[in-house]
Every structure is written in C-alpha cells, then in structure tokens.
Amino acid sequence: MDRVPCLDWHEGRHFDHTRDLPCCLCGRPTPMRSHTKEPVHKVCAETWNAACPQEPRRYTAPTKDKPEQHDVGTWRFHNDGPVTDIRAPILGQVITTNSLSSGPREIESPRQEQRGLFAA
Questions:
Q1: For burial by CB atoms within 10 Å, which of 54, 58, 62, 90 has the most?
Q2: Residues of the chain scoring pLDDT < 70
Q3: CB 14 within 8 A of CB 32
C-alpha cells in the first residue's frame, strides 16, 4: 500500500461546530471543512491529493534551515500556514508618480521574508 502524506489542518476553521454536511468526495456526513469551506473528511482530502498528482500544487517557503521547498498539497486541499506558489513572481519595488510631488517616489517593497507568501 502506498504511503499518503497527511495534511496539517490544526486551525479551528477546519471544523464546523454547527452541523455535519455530506463530504464532497465520499458523501458521508462530516464536520470537517477545507480552506474553501468545502465539506470533506481530512482522510478523503489526503487520499484525493495522493490520487491526483497532476493537480496544481502548493509549496513551503524556503528558509535558512530548509532551503528546499516541499509539497504541502494541492490548491484544492493543502496544509495550514503560509506557503508560496512557485509560479508567482517575486515582487519588486513599485515606482509611481504623485501629482502633489515634483517627481516619482518609491513605495516600499514587501520585506524579503514576505515575498511570494500566501496564507493558506
């Protein structure tokens, strides 16, 4: 049997205390919700991620300790926490003109550690 990577859904938003809805994958009732509020069992989401390797993926942001990115799931079902999309360009400085000033002014670019990050 193949090993299926587990999703990290530790945030409370993945649990609906008010009601169970049918899982979008298996149809059985579940209080679990994906990041997009789609009712789904965590195990069903993990199995779907493993069965659909061709789906667009999300990756961790590289750090000093871990310079390599690693897969945190598909865009449909992914881990909690900040991730980066390797398809997104790194943001650079933006220069605009202001009608009240005599010339262009620079707008601060995001801090280096915030570039390309998306909250999951």
A1: 58
A2: 1, 83-120
A3: yes
